[in-house]
Write a structure and sequence with these properties.
It contains five helices and no strands. By secondary structure, the chain is mostly helical. α3 packs antiparallel against α4 (82-93) and α4 packs antiparallel against α5 (102-118). It is elongated, with a radius of gyration of 24 Å. The protein starts with a helix and ends in a 25-residue tail after the last helix.
Length: 143
């Protein structure tokens, strides 16, 4: 709600990406100060990118979270538990994670990628019969 109600005085394209982080404040002002005072990630996004682009980024994050949740539930009904287990951590970081801190951003990217990879259906391995049945590999000898 703050991201929408607090964006009335923000310029159309925001104040600039990175300005709401602590490193951005030090680089721009020379002192440890928060230039865009936002307690949560969504308000920081709208402050940095403006209302239109900030809300678009929020919708992208929510849409990806929704797709991962639906995909994990489908894999759960197929008997695959891994995507469902990964989803518990992914839904904490992906929609509202503080991406201004590099460590949190890195863990979000890591768990998001692992969650997407776990949604891929496993391929069935089919072994082809060998054409030459007499050609077998010799046993390994102890040296």
């Amino acid at each position: 709600i703050k991201s929408i109600t607090g964006s009335s005085g923000i310029p159309f394209f925001g104040y600039g990406i990175g300005m709401g982080t602590s490193v951005g404040g030090v680089l721009l002002s020379g002192d440890r100060v928060m230039l865009i005072y936002a307690e949560d990630e969504w308000a920081r996004l709208t402050g940095e990118m403006g209302a239109v682009l900030g809300l678009a980024m929020i919708y992208i994050r929510l849409g990806l979270s929704y797709k991962l949740a639906v995909g994990a539930f489908r894999r759960l009904t197929a008997g695959d538990l891994l995507p469902w287990f990964l989803l518990s951590f992914c839904l904490l970081n992906l929609p509202q994670g503080q991406w201004g801190q590099p460590t949190s951003l890195g863990f979000t990217i890591l768990i998001g990628g692992l969650s997407m990879a776990s949604l891929k259906a496993p391929e069935k391995i089919v072994s082809k019969p060998s054409a030459n049945k007499s050609a077998t590999t010799p046993p390994i000898k102890n040296l």
